[in-house]
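Q: Could you fold this chain for me?
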Amino acid sequence: MVLSVPFDLHTLLTYCAAAAALVVAPGPAQALVITRSIQGGTRGGLLTSVGLEIGTIIHTVAAAIGLSAILASSATAFLVVKYAGAAYLIVLGFLMLRRSAGVTKADGLQEPPAVNGGRLVLHAAMTGVLNPKVAVFFLAFLPQFVDPRRGAVLLQFLILGMILGTLGLICDSTIAVIAGRVRHRLDASGRFAAWRERVTGTVLVALGLRLAMADRS
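A: Sure. Below is the predicted structure, expressed as structure tokens.
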């Protein structure tokens, strides 16, 4: 019995090159990782990276079974998901801004607050999942590298998603480590602590507004 190989080498290498270019390009995901790293240190950024890549896998499965096609073809579905995601980010941002009123410079000399890891992962995953433009992008991008003649279409989608998620996790984790170290140095100087929550809240609100104004193109 001969097992069918999901991809030929040229297709796989082409996909990996395209995926690598995508994950290193600056975007909302990197902005979220940086702000979470500034807020909660390297740990916060790493957990956010994990959550974002969980969102990547969810979008991959959605593209494979056709849910993304619904968002691409239905204006109503697209708007519902878009505004739900935007509202989620904006509410989180305003909560951060309100909390920033109680932050003092002395707080910067302390270790990052212990934030529930599961909550950070969930927030990041929801941020990714509730972005319909990402879903539409996956529907347009992944099928270019899927060949039904090789069989196991769902497996092909999952492999492509895992590759993209792994590259994204490596890139975002690197950003988290760098931003976490910068945050530590800024905190040690005692000059950045009062702005930490404000920066995080402002970026989250900005990401929410950006998503609210997005269209399907």
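A (continued): The chain is about 75% helix and 0% strand.
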